[in-house]
Automatic annotation (TrEMBL):
Uppermost EC category: ligase
Family per similarity comment: Belongs to the QueC family.
Single Gene Ontology BP annotation: tRNA queuosine(34) biosynthetic process
Species this protein is from: Halioglobus japonicus
Protein name: 7-cyano-7-deazaguanine synthase
Gene: queC
Cofactor(s) for this UniProt protein: Zn(2+)
Length: 225
């Protein structure tokens, strides 16, 4: 690992972001992991983010406090909106308004402070549940903005947003992570996980995760309640 080759990795404690962290580390980056306590109902993911960051050898793990629950508008931040347990069409109620834009903006700021020119995020255009801020067009637009809006970009230190999972299905993501030594039992993906990190097995995230292990041909290590 080259300590001069720094990257900020957005880590939620879930399957995708953990795989991205393993990929960045394998590419020789000194990994600075970033998570958000944003008022989410599934707070067990914060403990999982800390676990996977430690297990995969991060340099520093930072948790930034935001209260996106103050504006609500999502089943993940407003307990009055039920998390759907059946497949839905269009953009689901688990979409958190502007979440990735807020998260990546803070990651961008930390990258500037660290002198890092690389940010990794686990967005995916295949199994992305219909979220508009997980599409390649969005990532390209944010990267362009980042290079216009920062001192680093203006001074010629090009910032790059890496999305290594963008075109992969869940089974392929899991297979790639296992090849890199990821222990998926440390991760939490459920939108309504309990305080111990056990999953409901019914929400969209649980369905995608379970099918991913089936497609990868390996046992599902997820703990369900």
């Amino acid at each position: 690992m080259n300590s001069d080759k720094r990257a900020v990795i957005l880590v939620s404690g879930g399957l995708d972001s953990t795989t991205v962290l393993a990929m960045a580390r394998a590419q020789g980056y000194a990994c600075y992991t970033l998570s958000f306590d944003y008022g989410q109902r599934h707070r067990a993911e914060l403990l999982a983010a800390d676990r996977v960051s430690t297990a995969l050898g991060d340099v520093e793990h930072k948790v930034v406090n935001l209260n996106l629950d103050a504006i609500g508008g999502s089943a993940l931040t407003d307990t009055d909106i039920d998390v759907p347990e059946e497949e839905t069409q269009g953009i689901p109620v688990t979409y958190v308004p502007a979440r990735n834009t807020v998260f990546m903006s803070i990651a961008l700021g930390w990258a500037e402070v660290l002198g890092a020119q690389d940010i990794f995020i686990g967005v995916n255009a295949v199994d992305y549940s219909g979220y508009p801020d997980c599409r390649p067009e969005y990532i390209a637009a944010f990267e362009a903005m980042a290079n216009l809006a920062t001192r680093a970009g203006v001074e010629g230190q090009k910032l790059t947003i890496h999305t290594p999972l963008m075109e992969l299905g869940k089974g392929d993501i899991i297979a790639a992570g296992l090849d890199l030594g990821v222990d998926y039992s440390l991760t939490v993906s459920c939108y309504q996980a309990d305080a111990d990190g056990r999953a409901c097995g019914k929400c969209d995230s649980c369905r995608l995760r379970r099918q991913g292990f089936v497609d990868a041909g390996v046992a599902d290590p997820t703990r369900y309640y």
